[in-house]
Amino acid sequence: MGVKELLAEKIAGEITLSPKPGETLRKWRTTFTISQAELARFLGLAQSVISDYESGRRKSPGINSVKKIVEALITIDETKHGRAVIQQYQFMAKTQDGIIDIMEYPYPIPIEKLIKEINGTVVTSPSVSLNRTVKGFTLIDGIETIKTLTASNYPNLYGWSTERALIFTRIQFGRSPMIAIRIHPVKPTIVVYHQPGGVDPLAVQLAERENMPLVVTNISLEELRKKLIGLGK
């Protein structure tokens, strides 16, 4: 599946699954820097129709309408905006060895809710704020990822958004993952260690320097995966 198809699938999924589909539609329209008027003109609709969808004054568009809107956003970007947005997501079409599961949430999830759901324990100091949200998660095999991770494929860990939880399993003390995160300019919102042998004090120090919560969970891997997926339903 190419990047356009992946992007279309992601946007359509977010809109249809969102508890506030109008707000999600507006988010993506503004991401593509497309005005209500331009989108409406392309679809052959009155601008008020798009405005009513986004404000919630009109009932959420059905699946067929969402499909047409998404196709319009991508086509306009491709034909009139030089693929500006599509190119930003080009690298996401590639896969990364070591990724067990990756998912985007249809709406932001408070990290305190995520931590509670996975029975997590925060190991960073209280000065690291938990007042933030994530838009997805990546569940990572720590051993395989460290073997294959390079500067060029590191961004693949982030799916469609850097505002996410990176969860590492099969790690001993967690020093290597945090060093990799520390030296790369792209940062996650929160890092979770699944059943580590322990937590290296250096890993905690590095997380605190990045003002990034570091959390430990000891539930089973399958339960962890189910709970992470369940947060997006």
Task: Describe the protein's topology.
Blueprint: H1 3-17, H2 21-31, H3 36-43, H4 47-55, H5 63-80, H6 84-88, E1 99-110, H7 111-117, E2 121-122, E3 133-141, H8 142-148, E4 165-169, H9 175-183, E5 190-194, H10 201-209, E6 214-217, H11 221-230
Helix pairs in contact: 1-2, 1-5, 2-4, 3-4, 9-10
Can you tell me the overall shape? elongated
Count of the domains: 2
What share of the residues lie within helices?
40-55%
Query: What's the architecture of the largest domain, going by CATH?
Result: 3-Layer(aba) Sandwich
Strand order of the largest sheet: 1-3-4-5-6-2
Sheet with most strands: 6 strands, mixed
CATH topology (level 3) name of the largest domain: Udp-n-acetylmuramoylalanyl-d-glutamate--2,6- Diaminopimelate Ligase, Chain: A, domain 1
Strand composition percent:
15-25%
* CATH level-1 class of the largest domain: Alpha Beta
